[in-house]
Amino acid sequence: MDLQGLPMTQNTHAPGIYKRNPPIAGEAEAIEAAKNGDAEAFSKLYALHKRRVYTLCLRMLGNVSEAEDMTQEAFLHLFRKIGSFRGESAFSTWLHRLTVNLVLMHLRKKGLNLVSLEETINPSEDDAPKRDFGSRDLQLTGSVDRVALERAVASLPPGYRMVFVLHDVEGFEHNEIATMLECSTGNSKSQLHKARLKLRELLRQPEQPAQPTGFNEVAV
Amino acid sequence: MTDSKLPDFDTMTPADFEQYLPEFFATGDGHVSQDPRLQTFLRNNPDCAALVRDLEAIADQARSLFAPVEPSDTVWNNIQSKLKQNSAADEDDLPIPRTV
Known about the structure:
The complex is a heterodimer.
Chain A: E1 2-3, E2 6-7, H1 15-19, H2 27-35, H3 39-61, H4 64-81, H5 91-110, H6 146-154, H7 158-169, H8 174-181, H9 185-204
Helix pairs in contact in A: 2-3, 3-4, 3-5, 4-5, 7-9, 8-9
Chain B: H1 14-26, H2 39-44, H3 46-62, H4 73-89
């Protein structure tokens, strides 16, 4: 399946994701029934996967309202396309990729130029990480506060956040990210590095009042 | 980037290290601090070693980020509503999932 040129393959090149997506009891039966139009089976699939899909959307978009809209779109798309699921990968892996591709399409429509991931177009000076890698910070070394990191991720520029979430949080490989974002693997590596440098910089700043980002709206 | 493009690890400067760091992270298991080729350099450049530890800590913590969150009931209500609309428009009347 292709979503406007975005590959929606059922390959098995995401071992990290696959490991985190073991089969769920009753899921296979629900999938087969949903393919035949069983409404209750579709309801079950929604119940089984709504949290995973929504959380993924929230991570990628950093905004509750948009994440809910994209969750809705993902399941509507699933309802229409479930017949094309052939079971070559875990269903959750397939749904995960479908969701990622929908979110990327959404961001493109919204005007986030994913081409800006290319290094020829740098983020604004304010967004770019400072190149002060020399100074040591014993507060950060060896331990990172999870809540502070979540806040910092939410405040990353969209391009940085996308690559960081896809690689470090979701476990995609650079070649997979490059395919999804239509950039080179070198750019994916570079953007990930810049994202981590930016996060380091943000985490080293004295704690500031919460930014009005999507993640702050969520009570986790 | 291939090994042939990597710097000489014995003469590498901190600037070289910074330039190649994304590649160092991308190879192996991503734990640059454990890379045997870099041990001498990191020992001699504690600030670079600190940077590596920080970035590794961020990457490690990222794996546990964002506990799953429940979408609001509105999402499912909207899905049902959309399916109902589509179903009414389609000749092959698809069944409407009931509320979860």
